[in-house]
Design brief:
mainly alpha, Hypothetical protein af1432, two-stranded antiparallel ribbon, 26 helices, binds fe (ii) ion
Length: about 525
């Protein structure tokens, strides 16, 4: 069964949440900036077409900012803290930029002798522009490419390429000036700065700073309009923004994704996440290919395989909350860094939480991709019955693929050594033996044991029927859900009862529960 169509705006909100994490912005920053920018667009009398551009610019302005993050981290350390600082300053003011860079380098060399710090600062300041310009240009191009992959118009893509340009021509990378910077870009830059400055300094100081930057970062007429209505425009924008508000703000026609567009959107997220560091490049695609193959090998229903693949594409999206400088460390992480790193499945779940339909199942899988059957995984410490076959496959595929890739603190393992590591995790009670053997078979590793009875040999259709009757559906109800004849559903029930060795619905339900086959959201009500 194909999944129901999903609103594109749901994906835009997930991307916005992710970029807020990566840039160290406050919760729902991009959503709040979208509301503010749309209000300002209204006051400025923009037509629907321009309002559409404003809407997308506000939600997606920073989607390209993960490109080459390792270069930024190598030069300036914690790039999330750096981005947070940069968002608050006037980027047309060289002394403010220099001050911010010195602060970043001081963080990196906090424990170094003064002479070493002084040398690093001198070098950092000399190289700042050489390092930054190609990185920022890359952000623009990557944002444009991601936008293209999620079906956004050429004009929206063009605007995303101007995210760092300014009214006075002192922006990057092209130094566009005045009207050459498109109106939606000018408007969103002002709106986002207003929120950042208001949070950092309070309303009064924010308006004074916007007035000071009038004619510099901002178009004078737009700054005047904003300042004349600032109180009303910012009203109620100091808390979380609900999903419905953003959906309602999307100018007509509202974009909808079919299954193919969803596939491409999840894949675009995979690439966006993986391109932060050279050693994760292609990681999520590889995990997805392996998980997809293992799901088929284990005979999972088509919808499970689809959700598994989409979860694999997005499984590490929560890593954006952790500075690349942490992932790049060659020494052991501190306890605090370990805690932060182990929370990435939580952040991933939160990022995808707003998705509708199958997105809910995807988010649930993402939150479990480092869980173990014995409760020793993270972040939930979930145990066997809470881990569906898809979750078990995802954990095994992720573990295998990661072992095969080099990381700054270790070499890549050979396929044979990675297989041995996974089998050791099975012996320790951490990974599911069936999921591991399915993953290893799909990775071309010789089988260690026969697996004729995966999930008791249930067919994908029998698994679907089992789930429905476990959730309280009658044979008739299950037939209706699956759009099959009641007699056919009854045959499936008899067959699956005999395969799993039960004679009652209650025992079948318990079997499903014990093996993580009961899905949230399925109920007979
Ligand atoms: Fe991963
Ligand atoms: Fe992960």
């Amino acid at each position: 069964m194909a999944p129901p169509a999903a609103r594109r705006a749901d994906f835009l909100m997930a991307l916005a949440y992710a970029t807020d994490l990566a840039t160290g912005q406050s919760r729902d920053f991009a959503l709040r900036s979208c509301v503010l920018a749309m209000r300002l667009a209204e006051v400025a009398g923009l037509d629907d077409h321009q309002r559409r551009n404003v809407y997308h610019q506000a939600l997606l302005r920073y989607i390209g900012c993960n490109a080459d993050t390792h270069l930024l981290a190598s030069a300036f350390g914690d790039e999330i803290a750096l981005r947070q600082d940069l968002a608050r300053i006037d980027m047309g003011d060289q002394s403010q930029i220099a001050e911010t860079i010195v602060r970043a380098i001081t963080r990196v060399f906090a424990d170094a002798p003064p002479a070493e710090l002084a040398k690093a600062v001198e070098q950092g300041l000399a190289e700042a522009m050489n390092v930054s310009v190609p990185i920022l240009a890359g952000h623009c191009e990557v944002a444009q490419r991601i936008a293209e992959r999620i079906g956004l118009s050429g004009e929206i893509r063009q605007n995303l390429g101007q995210l760092y340009e300014r009214w006075d021509g002192r922006g990057l990378p092209r130094g566009l000036q005045g009207d050459a910077v498109s109106l939606p870009v000018r408007l969103v830059t002002l709106a986002q700065d207003a929120i950042v400055l208001s949070e950092a300094h309070g309303f009064e100081t924010m308006t004074a700073m916007i007035a000071k930057r009038r004619g510099g970062a901002y178009e004078p007429a737009l700054a005047d309009l904003f300042l004349a209505h600032a109180g009303r425009l910012l009203a109620g924008l100091d808390g979380a923004v609900d999903r419905a508000t953003i959906l309602a703000l999307e100018p007509a026609p509202q974009a909808v994704f079919d299954e193919r567009a969803c596939e491409e959107a999840y894949l675009a997220i995979a690439d966006m996440v993986d391109m932060r560091m050279p050693f994760t490049f292609g990681h999520s695609r590889a995990v997805a290919a392996l998980a997809d193959a293992a799901g088929r090998h284990m005979g999972l229903p088509a919808s499970d395989i689809r959700e598994l693949r989409w979860a694999a594409y997005t499984h590490d999206i929560g890593e954006l909350a952790v500075p690349v400088s942490t992932w790049m460390k060659t020494s052991a992480l501190t306890l605090r860094e370990t805690d932060a790193a182990r929370l990435h499945p939580y952040h991933g779940e939160r990022t995808l939480a707003g998705l509708s339909g199958e997105g809910k199942a995807v988010a649930a899988l993402v939150s479990r991709h480092h869980e173990h059957l014995d409760g020793s995984g993270y972040y939930r410490n979930a145990r066997g019955p809470d881990l569906s076959p898809a979750a078990r496959i995802l954990a095994a595929a992720e573990a295998f693929q990661t072992a095969r890739e080099a990381r700054p603190h270790r070499e890549a393992l050979s396929a044979a050594d990675a297989a041995a590591q996974l089998r050791a995790a099975v012996r320790e009670g951490k990974l599911c033996p069936d999921a591991v053997e399915a993953v290893l078979a799909c990775a071309g590793q010789p089988a260690r044991r026969a697996h004729a009875e995966r999930l008791a040999g249930l067919t994908p259709r029998e698994i679907e029927v089992l789930r429905l009757i476990a959730a309280g559906h009658t044979a008739k109800g299950a037939a209706r859900q699956l759009e099959i004849a009641p007699k056919t559903a009854d045959n499936h029930i008899q067959s699956l009862y005999s395969k799993i060795g039960v004679t009652t619905r209650a025992a079948a339900a318990l079997y499903a529960l014990e093996r993580g086959l009961v899905q949230q959201g399925i109920s007979a009500a």
